[in-house]
Amino acid sequence: MKLRIRAGTVSDDKLCGAIMLEALVTEDIPRSFLKDNVLILPLRSNLRFIAFYDEDPVGFCDYSISKSHINYLFVYPLFQDNGVGTCLLENVQRRLETPISVNVLCRNEKAILWYLKKDFTVKKLWSEQFNGQLTAWLKLTRETL
């Protein structure tokens, strides 16, 4: 199988929502993005990369150039641990050419450990309301390559 990355658009909002829905546990799905049990992930003013194995979409990353921040990076669970997330991350890092940050739910230990292995460091811990409950978050950052 061949991995390729392409730029995403607003036409990929439903596709990215489906990937996110598969990758998250129910309580971590942003309720504001659910419409009739379909998760639509609006691109808004962000940029997006989508990863494909052959012709099958397997992951995506939404990011902000102005904030040098990754808003979302998700990979279908069946394709995790195959370099898809790393490839998406490296594409974003090359595009931004600046230190980058990402916010991760503290209860998402797998994601936190993955980012730490990718040379991110913890910069901030805070709690805020998320889906109706107080939720702890980490801000992680990584210097340029």
- The CATH superfamily appears as Gcn5-related N-acetyltransferase (GNAT)
Distance between the termini: 27 Å
Classify the beta-strand content into a percent band.
35-45%
Biggest β-sheet strands, sense, barrel: 7 strands, mixed
Strand order of the largest sheet: 1-4-5-6-7-9-8
The overall pLDDT average reads 92
Q: In the CATH scheme, what's the topology name?
A: Aminopeptidase
Question: Could you say which structural class the secondary elements and strand pairing correspond to?
Answer: alpha+beta
Number of domains: 1
Beta-strand segment tally: 9
Question: How is this structure best described in words?
Answer:
By secondary structure, the protein is α+β, with helices and mostly antiparallel strands. The model has no long low-confidence stretch (mean pLDDT 92). The strands form 2 sheets. Strands 1-4-5-6-7-9-8 form a 7-stranded mixed β-sheet, sandwiched between helices. The chain has a two-stranded antiparallel ribbon with strand order 2-3. It has one domain: Aminopeptidase (3-Layer(aba) Sandwich). Strand 8 and strand 9 form a beta hairpin.
Explain briefly what this protein structure is.
Helix content is 23%, strand content 40%. The chain has 145 residues and is α+β, with helices and mostly antiparallel strands. It has a single domain (3-142), classed as Aminopeptidase, CATH 3.40.630.
